[in-house]
Fold this sequence. Notes:
disordered N terminus, 34% helix, 6-stranded mixed β-sheet, alpha/beta
Amino acid sequence: MTETLKHAEAGPSRGSAPMTTRRPLPRPMAPPPPPRPVRATVPGPPAGHDGPDNPPGLPLDMEKLLSARLHAVKVRPYLAVALFALSVVEDRSVPTMAVDAHWRCYVSPGFVARTPVEELAGVWVHEVSHLLRDHHGRGERYAREHEEYGPGERLRRNIAADFEINDDIYGEGLPRPTGAVRPSLLRLPDGLLMEEYLRTASMSGLAADLAWLDCGSGADGQDRPWELGPDGSHGLTRQQRDAVRFRVAEGIKGRPGSAPEGWRRWADEAFHPPQPWRRLLGAAVRSAAGAPGVGENHSYRRPSRRSAGVPGVLLPSLRRTPPRVCVVIDTSGSVSDAELGSALLEVAAISRAVGGRRDLVSVISCDAAAGVAVPLCRAENIELVGGGGTDLRSGFARALRSRPRPDVIVALTDGQTPWPSAQPPCRTVVGLFPRVGGTVNENNPDYVPDTPPSWARVVTIN
């Protein structure tokens, strides 16, 4: 008993320090320390592991969980295909609910037991939103491009993905679950993408309060030890996942008035993502300029090595010179001022694509008739003349009459023009301004413009 009292008075030991017996001195009882301030808008971590709220013997209330999914389908019918595609996996190591990239939904029995059905329906929608918006693939790409790995970076990506989702999926029969984070926590605007939130704020101030937040690899692209992986059961293949996304996107576009703006934007871009057209146009110009035969000419400055095999004969060598590019800009009345301004920006980008040699780039304004080929000094100083009808054939003819003749012709147009009947003796790239509402011709209501010829490389300019 005496030894026990000594141990109790001595208190806990640290490391390998020797244990000493110390007689406590009488002193007045100090008041308890004030409670640690907690952020009012961020609740503490929910109990998801084994504990008072999640005892080892607590079964998963599957009936309640599936009832919540039915409620989510009722209030968000356009997500029904995706919600029913998720397979449920019971797992006590998951804090709340989480998903992996193979469309498995990991569920904590304790979380289901203490969460109301309506809020649980919101969690269903939240988790399936991670998968529909491809936060798994986007999170992987962001981590690879910025070389940001580790638990802290995983949490940042998860928070940013939640910001993208939680700003517009709740309301109208779907209450926001307890603890759902929103961009307003960091005074950030709604409506941004995960990548934009990651670039805008560090989110380090939320790390301590949201350490419990874990929506699985489906939210950030980093695998978890409790996930079944690609070889586990009940996972969807890539083709099946794409089919689910396609059906959801078609459902949203079929009834666009029933979905929030964020979901409508997602449906428009899900299988028709905006092309990086500046990159594509530059690549097309570089590819055309670097093709065999472009900018190649014979020269006697450096004799060919084959001359050694022909005694007494001097053979020229084949040299590649910087390619010349002629840009034909459609200045007809059907092309807007904004598109003409965009065309001038592309002229400057084209000059960079051929190595920055602006003296090798010329510009021709063309509506029904072609103007003079103007050498490029500064794109801002080019005067575009036109405003009438459209016939780019005169622009191609003018470009081919230029001396020296261009190696590449780039036509920037809305496509409402006749095209040359024969392929020009040089490479051709067409930058096409799209016309979503179709074409209009007052003289001929049935007018349908010809598509760009097959011999031209076409890049749509969004």
